[in-house]
Amino acid sequence: MKCIQCFKEFKPRTKLSKYCSKYCCNKKFYYDNYEKSVNIRKQYSKDNKDKVSKKDAIYYENNTDRLKKQTAEYAFNNRDSCNYKCAKYNAIKTKAAPKWLTKEHFEQIKEFYKEAKRLEELDGVKRHVDHIIPLQGKTVSGLHVPWNLRVITAKENMNKSNKLIEEP
């Protein structure tokens, strides 16, 4: 049988196969049918949870060192994104992120972490995203919302600690 994309001879895996198993054809087919492919994979994962989780566990076991290295490398190169995800997780866990926050609010919050990284790269001074009103203060507790955030130096943030600093 000949592939209808590259016209090379191949043995079909199924009777319905029109494409060869060459990388170029599979990649083209995948991108041409991206949405359909994603939905098929999602449905398969949903229908075969046990099978997929076993396969994932075996893959992780066989590639633990490589995966840990990749994760550490990603975290190092994308510290702003990782800090944002960690802060979002902690805010949700401590109920500091209100349920009425929209995607736009979370995008605004993400911008603070990007700005902190940009300023840090610009002048080399370590920056933190600070909650103006602390999430778990002694007298008052704030929320993890864009209007309660600011970018300050790490030294300022460590000195401030978990206190509400009144503006003079």
Describe the structure.
- It is a single chain.
- This protein has 168 residues and is mainly alpha-helical.
- It has helices at 23-32, 34-47, 49-62, 64-77, 79-93, 103-123, 154-160, and strands spanning 127-131, 149-153.
- Strands 1-2 form a two-stranded antiparallel sheet.
- Helix 5 (79-93) packs across helix 6.
Low-confidence stretches at least 5 residues in length (pLDDT < 50)? none
Biggest sheet layout: 2 strands, antiparallel
- Shape descriptor reads elongated
State the separation between the terminal residues, measured CA to CA: 81 Å
Mean pLDDT: 83
CA radius of gyration: 24 Å
Number of strands: 2
- Helix/strand-derived class? mainly alpha
Write the H/E string, N to C. HHHHHHEEH
Helix content: 55-70%
Number of helices: 7
Beta-strand content estimate: 5-15%
Strand order of the largest sheet: 1-2
Give a nutshell description of this structure.
The protein is mainly α and 168 residues long. The chain has seven helices and two strands; from the N terminus they run ααααααββα.
